[in-house]
Amino acid sequence: MPAPAYLSDTAPGSGARVAPRSWLRSDAPALSLDGTWRFRLSPTADLPEDVAGPALDDSGWDELAVPAHWVLQGDGEYGRPIYTNVQFPFPLDPPHVPDENPTGDYRRTFELPADWPEGARTVLRFDGVESLYRVWLNGAEVGIATGSRLAQEFDVTDLVRPGTNHVAVRVHQWSPASYLEDQDQWWLPGIFRDVTLVARPVDGLQDVWLRTGWAGGDGWVEPELTADDAAFPVTLRIPSLGVETVWTRPADVGRVEVGPVEPWTAETPRLYDATVESTGETVSLRLGFRTVEIRGDRFLVNGERVVFHGMNRHEAHPVRGRVFDEQHAREDLARMKRFNVNAIRTSHYPPHPRLLDLADELGFWVILECDLETHGFEKNGWTRNPSDDPAWRDAYLDRIERTVERDKNHPSIVMWSLGNESGTGANLAAMSAWVHARDSGRPVHYEGDYTGEYTDVYSRMYSTVPETEQIGTDGSTAPLLGCTPAQGARQRTKPFLLCEYAHAMGNGPGALDQYEALVDAHPRLHGGFVWEWRDHGILTRTADGTPFYAYGGDFGEVVHDGNFVMDGMILSDDTPTPGLYEFAAMASPVRFTFDDAVGVTVANRRHSAATDDLRFDWRVEHDGRIVARGVLAVPPIPAGSSARVELPAIAVAPDAETWLTVEAVLAAATSWAPEGHVVASAQADRSAQALGGAAPAAPRITGWRDAEGSLTLGSAAFERGRLVRLAGRAVSGPRLELFRAPTDNDEGSAFSDPTGSDGAVPGVSSASLWRAHGLDRLVHRLVAVQEAPGALRTLTRVSAADSALSLTVETVWALVGDELELRVEIEPSAGWPTVWPRIGVRFNLPDGGEPIPGAEWFGLGPRESYPDSIQAARLGRYTASVDELSVPYARPQETGHRSAVRELTVGGLALRAFPDGRGRLPGFVLTRHTPQQLAAAEHPHELPASQTTYLFLDAAQHGLGSRACGPDVWPEFSLRPEARTLRVRFGS
Ligand code: GAL
Question: Disordered: where is this region (predicted)?
């Protein structure tokens, strides 16, 4: 039996579907049908319609929670999640889907409450079901709907009855709609948002839209009511503004001037409670007064330019998938606020409606995106792409209508987005036309409209720094992606935003500060949205019960995209990554510039809020130890302005580094952070001498002679030239290491800067070049060992199998007073062609009954930093355990590098590091695994048990870039082969 015809139908749905309307808080009766349903999963869609009948005996069926995704319930009993990015997990055969189509039948009964209003209409509402569902009430068919992340109401007035009612829902995982839902995420079927029976009272309010505006201090409401004449009179009340407006008939409904109000902004999310009362129903709303407009190439709210410091936010949870949890969502948004995130793009579909209430309340600029992506068609040159096929026009329009109608009351939403990565075509243009006709108060965004045929802002993803700069530069005629020069000129007349940039997969991204600098320099550029907020790992277990966060391929998918779904600024368990701290530093609302020794300029980079919520703390440290602190007197600085403030007199140490730190902190607790929370900080070097000026001269050693190399120098013991003990414990090294466990960006190959500025080889990842050149498998040959009184010197040649390229490493150990100096000279042979991941040396510290607990250091910290991701690092004294020094990225990779270290204590081993001849200090990594071990593991739990701690001293590390999906490391931060010196002194 072939699958039902509706599984080949491009229509958005059928039956008693009713027009979309706002998600409103109403006093009309509603009955939640969430809870336990009877459930039966079938592998195919060609099923009898027995599910409909109340009489069917379903006592043998399972029970399943609603809302939930069935693949995340049970232990694989109901199938497993599938992760794909662009690929479709079924044949590209639109609009058909395979017969192998997991189908979940859901059934339950409910009692209609005895006081259900007489004569009222009743709708059955589904807030989210993936992907196509067919509904029956009391055995009669109600209708079919699609649009997984869109709400749908069905009119069931004529089917619902007093007493016991029976509802049945058949959900197909795959449907024609799946072709429109090819977002980069897990495919998670099921009824995953609320199901509610809602009474629509006689004389009720079918829909309410309170559009607001603000200008020059005053606010207004432009109401639109959808109600029968009998619902009138209708009263609008805004108690805190003294507004009480009665409209006696529909024709009276009109603009209400509310006088002076505080405007709503993402920084000052002032909301006013309002009610709209008809004869049959009262709805409550929270109004924010703001006006969104585009003026020339500026995107303005309340007349001021908006800069998006945004995140792409998916609904993802390691246990619940896309099932909403308000507490968790609130914590998530509060976390964003703490990290200076001011904007959210709801990639790539409308979130649970409550999320937008939270965004209104906490304050975010929101780009609300429709549930639409057809990316898998790109592979075939967009042939048969639904976006340009009239057969899908209704489905496209239906989707955007349901998107806009549901959420139109939210002040946080400042733009509508048609969807993501769906090519281009007439159906997208039709969506845009519909939005323009419906909501003149918000512009339309869609990145795929490269040439700007039907959208209001110019949007791109992952454009490089030079390209982005060209977009922002007045008068530039540099070509723009997909545009003729004339189209490019049109795009440059619009505000620009990066709807995605800084791909946060694994360790990275680099270059956030470079993008930010462009936003400061070119007002047409309005910032952007990092891809993305969180890793989508799914908590699962290995066969032996070890828990881990799964990604693509971990559930045996036929096609999948591996760990490309682990590209968030927070890990699957909500842990913020160092990349998020870097973001917070880059996006800080306050900037400090130390003009000279006596003053600092404090710039308020906010949209509209002054700085009077902030306190400005300062402290002075001598070699990382606080010697003075206080509070700077900073007058309230209006948004967009700056003030020069006098600094306190600073006691400069004659023989220690002197640093001044200034911090802008919250003067009082907010709903998202405690008092004292740091929103911005900066440091200034006030040392008497330049770094390195105080470094002792290298010892001059004479009298070298060839030796066998077994000797003791202070606390160090050497056997045949090799270190075996140091500071009372077994230690070996230093051994040259050029390899780091490739980051996801090091493994990336897709992108390179079209201008060639980054030197990346198109289509070839850095990691593959490193492996080809054997950087992960260097072998060593001790060439010479020499001794002099109190000193030892070795020369080693380092190279890889089948390679003529080599390095020479000279180590010189020398007793200097009660310290032992080590100098390592690393000299590459001519001809190394690639960038290097690092230039460092490794010491092995076997546990020997006493594992290294961690590190204490004076240097940059507290978190890891790399050359192009170092804005969040501050000079100080830090302590961390070995575990705390590494970030458990979803796929093991390079982690833990602390830059510019001056002093380091590891177990009983204490060292001081000195700058090289060009003032560069080394970094360190302390870890339980070698780069080779990290690189071999796919998940953290696969790392082997370790009996050794490894200490790396890195003369240099390569930058991070974001080439997993974006530009490579900027040349300035690329590590090209070069000679380097490491110089440290161990306390003996
Ligand atoms: C973009 C896409 C996102 C995500 C990202 C890579 O092209 O819009 O959904 O796939 O790339 O992680």
Answer: 739-759
